[in-house]
Design brief:
This protein has one helix spanning 26-36, and strands at residues 41-46, 59-64, 75-76. It is an alpha+beta fold. The protein has one domain (7-76): Trypsin Inhibitor V, subunit A (Trypsin Inhibitor V, Chain A). Strands 1-2-3 form a three-stranded mixed sheet, with helices on one face. Belongs to the protease inhibitor I13 (potato type I serine protease inhibitor) family.
Length: 77
Amino acid sequence: MSTAGCSSACKVTGKSSWPELMGTNVAKAVSVIQTENPSVHVKVLNMSKPIPLPVDCARVVVFIDDTNKVALPPVIC
């Protein structure tokens, strides 16, 4: 699974990616994202799920592993 190119499709006000959250517990990651860019909503998905279509420039996709840790850098997608 890759989120490469997701945020490049959107003109975003504020922060659009959170690579520093890799390995973080999902609840903390969601809180950080909502604090740093309150204009987006967060969609949490297991690594086995595809990126939801269509691209939503107000949605941050957070892929997690089986231990509820962020597995890929969260991005607007």
